[in-house]
Amino acid sequence: MSKAKIKRSTLGRLMPELTSLTKRGPSGWMVILGIIIVSALVIMTVIAHWIAPHDPIEIGVGPIRAPPSSQFPMGTNHLGQDVLSRILCGGSVMLQVSILSVLVCFVVGVPLGLFSSYVGGLFDRACSLVIDAIYAFPGLVIAIAIFAMLGPGVVNMALSIAVVYIPSYFRVVRSQVLSIKELTYVEAARGIGARWHTILFRYVFPNVIPSIVVIATINFADAVLTAAGLTFIGLGVSVDIPDWGWDLKYGRELLSSGAWWVITFPGLMIILLALGFTLIGEGLSEVLNPKLQR
Amino acid sequence: MPLLELDSVTVDYRTSRGTIRAVEDVSFSLEKGKTLGLAGESGSGKSTLGLSLMRLVPYPGVIVNGHIRINQTDVTELPEPRMRSVRGGKVAYIFQDPMTSLNPVKRISAHFLELIRTHEPNTSKEEALERAKTMLRDLGILPERINDYPHQFSGGMRQRIMIGLAIVLNPDLVIADEPTTALDVIVQAKILDLLENLRKIYGMALIIISHDLSIILERCDKIIVMYAGHMFEYASSLELHRNPRHPYTQGLLQSIPNIELVDQKLAAIPGSPPNMLNPPTGCRFWPRCSYVMEICRTKEPPLIDTGHNHLVRCFRYHEG
Amino acid sequence: MGLRSYIITRILLTIPTLLLLLSMVFLVMRVLPGDPVELHFEKKATPEQMEAMRRALGLDKPLWAQYTDYLWGLVDVGYLLEHGYPNLGKSMQTFEEVGGQIFSAFPATLELAIYSMLIASIIGILLGVTSSKSYNSFLDHLIRGFGTVTYAVPIFVLGMIFQLIFGVYLRWLPTGLRLDPAVNPPPTITGLYTIDSLIAANPVKFFEASKALLLPSLTLGLILSGMFIRMTRTNMLETLRLDFVTAAKARGLKESTVTYGYALRNAFLPILTMMGLQFAILLGGAILTETTFSWPGLGRYTVDRITFRDYTAIQGAVVMFGLFVTLVSLIVDILYAYFDPRIRL
Q1: How far is B226 from chain A (nearest CA, A)?
Q2: Among A156, B309, C85, C276, which one is least packed by beta carbons within 10 Å?
Q3: Domain segments of chain B: what residues?
Q4: Chain A contacts of C280, Cβ < 8 Å?
Q5: How far is residue B63 from each of residues B22, B28, B208, B286, measured CA to CA in Å?
């Protein structure tokens, strides 16, 4: 069977799952809600520059630190920039970084996990040791260390975040593979002389997919939060690009003057984006692996 | 006056996929010091019935109808605090799997001390410990092991500890749920003998729940045969053995292998128990019954008294 | 095996893990991406200036020598006794001993971490138990919703909102600093202001220290509690269905005994492990919390060092984080063995 046919059958197994989400009770609705939120934010970011009332990086569009009004529905910041426009455009860096980092995690973590656990032996133990060491380390610290050394940039930020979360993929894939590896039908496949890569991709991999999907969505949420965190402490991408994280960082200075709008709106957006992904992840996790069902 | 009286007890499980009627319209009584056997396949509702006597049916189970009376007291709607003093004190339950019925992080001494001092708060720690050690001795376990943890005992010993915990407060009634299923055959016999001896010494009534009809026939005064939540037959064990009336009971008896027969073929009842979310209309056994009649498919048979206190739920015994 | 031999074995096992950790930090900070000195100066210095710095910091030696110096610095007992802290190199910015800077910043983080963990676990466990006992009810869904939302809220956003409400609008609590500038810290015994002020029997200082601690630890604790709620709930739900719990109810034991003595005590062990894992997340969160509240701890130290491109100091801080996490992990494993007799017997 060609690889194209495998992909279709995997997708074919997922599609009816997705369409039947509404019948799965509250978890199904969680997933749908999450997808709506994320899609809305993505669309907003994509069309942002067309619908923004003002240029988000233009200084002095309005008075400095003005509270929300009819002219500036979300107020202005310390540079006189329109907060609303910055909100509309501010998600692009975060989305780019999170998509990229999830991709890297996936491309590195999943094959590594598959290969390592299937092969076993010393290689597996060595990999697991290193992965566990990374996993135990505070995520933000790793990201800071790597990003500080690499320098600013979307790709660099994505890489730093990816390193933090690759262990999650590795571990989940590995534990799944280890349990599937010993199942009878895999032994049967080996018995009829299937080559190792056939077994890995045709038998083992399709069963691992549900867990990977869940991990990926939660990874998205984490990536968003970590990217925001990195920007907040000063390790951002670039000052010129409107970004919710930057707004929070500079908004902090204005706190004592009571300018709540400068931080509340960017904060809300980050919460929404992270929440959207979290809802998808949690809902999917219950839908695909129903626990405690009576 | 009977120790235990059940009056049309019905228990439902209200699950997200639908309501399962696990026990329907069960009535019986049990005298002091006597033994009752609840026989049936898995899913027949016998365990649920046993748990309902203690009001311990797990969520989403509910006792929807009927009354349970212990020593004249109606416990069906008894408030929780009073029910708690009944549990363990007046009625005790011995669970099926000894490997999982003890708290892994508590010593055996803690199990006993907690139990004794909850029901008899004025007992000192030393007194309670003494009683526990004596109990262990009666159970055939070295009393010095009182401070060990459950995982340090074998399955058979854990089962004995469970029995000890059930009996130590001298309850009026003990319910043993599949007391032998998790054990090997030799230990099984020992456990049943132990149960019988203790019962005679302490004078308590005993309900044995089991799918093994041979055990129940041997050890019980009265027997109830359950199927898909319904009480199919209710008689003394002697009566049941001599005159099994319900086709299901007959099938069960025939399927007990006889060690003395040389070329015995194992007889089994064809088919399998019904899906409780969607049980068959009429008599729940009709798809597997060799005597099935037209009326069996549509109407549920009532309980019919065939004399000698022998009740059967089958249309074959219905006049007219 | 007995508890003592388990502890010894476990400590011995930590050493290779620690070595791996330290090597990985060295790899990232010195070997992989680029030359820390170049990055520090951002190419705005003359080669002589860069060479001078390298010599002063010992960065001109071959890599393997740097590696051995680095490892030796951590176990150099002589240095430790002389300075009171291990040798973690010198700062690129001030040429001070990084070890000293870190050790003076560390107690603030420790104090924050302890109280945040306490708040997170108490809220988390209580809500998790409540949620599991009223399975599928409105309260259950509410608590679960709370847990999900707290996961999505960035710590610094919550922190700033708290500062706005309590610091700016209501003016109840200070918005930074461990103590009001007018108050002197208590005599240092543990470095934790709350404990030290209690030891010195000084209620005023204790009150001031607690006031300053309240918002940061509440912020961090609330965000962390989400995980605890979920873990406790899941474990409790599983444990509550186990036979020995029903058996305990069947013996007529009190509700609280069954919930806490039987269910929670058994469900607790995975929660304890999780507490250990959460510590790593806690430290990450501490960095953000300290930055938000200008809390003078290790987190803020690290962030400040980033601004100055002080790579040697950053390395020292990262090592410190790693050591801390490893130590906590060790303690958690030992506690686990203590609570679960099955592990050691």
Answers
A1: 23
A2: B309
A3: 4-105+149-317
A4: 136-139
A5: 10, 16, 21, 27
